Amino acid sequence: MKPNFSLRLRVFNLNCWGIPFLSKHRAGRMERLGDLLNLESFDLALLQEVWSEQDFQYLRQKLSLAYPAAHYFRSGIIGSGLCVFSKHPIQEITQHVYTLNGYPYMIHHGDWFCGKAAGLLVLHINGLVLNAYVTHLHAEYSREKDIYFAHRVAQAWELAQFIQCRAQFLPHQPGSPSHTSKKADVVLLCGDLNMHPKDLGCCLLKEWTGLQDAYLETQDYKGSDEGCTMVPKNCYVSQQDLGPFPCGIRIDYVLYKVVSGFCISCKTLQTTTGHDPHSSTPLSDHEALMATLYVRHSPPQQSPTPTQGPAERSPVINLLKEAWTELGMGIAQARWWATFAGYVIGLGLLVLMLLSVLAAGEVASEVAVLLWTPSVGLILGAGAVYLFHMQEAKGLCRAQAELQHVLGRAKKTQELDSEPQVAELLGQQAENRAEQ
Amino acid sequence: MKPNFSLRLRVFNLNCWGIPFLSKHRAGRMERLGDLLNLESFDLALLQEVWSEQDFQYLRQKLSLAYPAAHYFRSGIIGSGLCVFSKHPIQEITQHVYTLNGYPYMIHHGDWFCGKAAGLLVLHINGLVLNAYVTHLHAEYSREKDIYFAHRVAQAWELAQFIQCRAQFLPHQPGSPSHTSKKADVVLLCGDLNMHPKDLGCCLLKEWTGLQDAYLETQDYKGSDEGCTMVPKNCYVSQQDLGPFPCGIRIDYVLYKVVSGFCISCKTLQTTTGHDPHSSTPLSDHEALMATLYVRHSPPQQSPTPTQGPAERSPVINLLKEAWTELGMGIAQARWWATFAGYVIGLGLLVLMLLSVLAAGEVASEVAVLLWTPSVGLILGAGAVYLFHMQEAKGLCRAQAELQHVLGRAKKTQELDSEPQVAELLGQQAENRAEQ
Q1: Tell me, what's the ipTM?
Q2: Contact status of B97 with chain A (Cβ, < 8 Å)
Q3: Whole-structure pTM over 0.80, yes or no?
Q4: Do B394 and A76 touch (CB under 8 A)?
Q5: Where are the alpha helices (DSSP H) in B168-246?
């Protein structure tokens, strides 16, 4: 790579609100989205909520010249809704389906059926390795009583782990060259996180991965107030969707980072503002994000020895602790439901025995026979609820155990604070920040 | 790292057959397993089928001095059954739960409830980064009519992707130092793959990741004939378990690889042979594997430019194609079941309408009321089957699309065979083999 290497990356992100039969003006909006993407010719367009594979195929065909590479990420029963269109060839594709994603009996919310996931594509652009992630986390249906909070925190943690998995910057290994452990040169994450910037999951994700927020870093911002991606001006957005934030919410993001040897800056960030100048309706109920990023070569710096004491390291530790606590509350809730379902099963079995006795006798035998099948149904239903919440508890326990492990290592690191091992655990985060 | 660096790694692997209430002599076997592990003091002990977390806690306590680090991988409803005990501190823990893992209505097989997974722990031993994976794939209940074949192929592909995800050796990037993309120095995979060495999934896994089989590579082998890990001599193994292989089957493995700059050899590999010399019963229905690996420093070699033509590259391509075909058959099967369930739903709705009409009339109204609830049950059951098989089809499609992408790249590479890009796709596999 030449020392004066410089790359401009134009990225588009949109939650398309493409629910067949339910989303208004879907076909027209998809058509206009295709036109816009063809006109602007971004390097990458990352889309969410393209629930119909036909819509993806329509866009694929329409965009085939400007975006020769495309992929639809399949998962769950309906699909993840995620897809990507790229000007550059895709080298690798993989995805991670979140372990926890709502409840199957919350049919009206529907998230469980989608198999929410994080998709990854690896691109090689002018010798630069770019890992681009697209994701969509579980929706927040009520800010006040968010029954999915623990699931979203677990998803944010899994996403952070999935990103680190592919692009982690390990602490410098003695005897190894300066940046032997790098894999991706640039990491880009776009998507609808369904979290506000200060929400626990969002902070955890950013702190743990070292990803920077394009809205906060951009040199030139044009768009909706405060970078909101759901705004009241948008005719598809109701005040109910915005809850206690009538001016709008920011839940869609463009996040990025680079390894040592490169520097990245967000030259411009633009959002749509709730209406389309060429049409009476906007592209979606979410606003699109359009970012222009510049990646430049910069001489590799000596990895600074992390010098922070426990106080400086506390933000990420506090976030980990907070997430640990929230997951613990989720586990307690899941176990409560499993226990409740267990009692219902027990009660159902008792009723079944009673009905069998009644059916064998002469008094009320007809009623007993009539009630027999609903009782079996009740037991089976409660059994399914029991199994589901046991699985939920296992999934939350798993995430909590991973956090526990990290916190355990952090504690050991603090104990050995004066020794060189101090760099081990949080060196990762420290290096990420230093590199940027 | 010193040039004369050398590391001895002693590894233990066992499928423990620890099903509460069902597995014979479980408590006694766990006790003897603990004694053996304490006595031998391996670097790593990787266990499968420890279905009861109490068993894990018992072993953890018993092994706390010889193996200070331990982890139990939680997933599904019952748990993955995977756990690890390590002499060395564990730096990182993560896991991947397989998307497809049998059918919930095959309760007697039970795999679906376990949430089969691959667990990963990252260890730093004397400055060396070791990624150790432990896994357990879906069981094969019938060799002749294996309804889980496509699931196991998908699991093998996901496992291969998960391993590459953490330890992939990317093709040499222009301008970057010789081995910038390495992350783990050593990759170790132990577990019960439920696949014979020549089975499609097993070959795909080994070819795609470049992992070597300790049984085939070892300088000194002691144990059961042909390296079998389920043998007729074992009193817990029935002839039915062995199916058409009365002499035994090899389905448990120790696999490994290293990056350029290191070389690895398997000094000894030992298996138990179906009986315990100190007890009347063996440790499990599977045989344990005990390997001694040596990792040594070796001068980094210039990555050879892959010179193979299409003919030499064909093994992995053929495997990918074969897996693609098998997944296709799995998709057809899944769709058949979804369609069948769809017809049952339709039929159930018709019956329900008929029953409603009958119940409103006078003829057979009692029978109609009696049959109403079972009909609703039938519709709900068929609905669940429909959703499950739709999800199965999506999961298989996803794996097939990933294979399709790889095959597409391979085709492009073949077309550009005379140009430097030839190294792109299969350079990865070629380099892995060359490095070893």
Answers
A1: 0.84
A2: yes
A3: yes
A4: yes
A5: 200-209, 214-217, 239-242
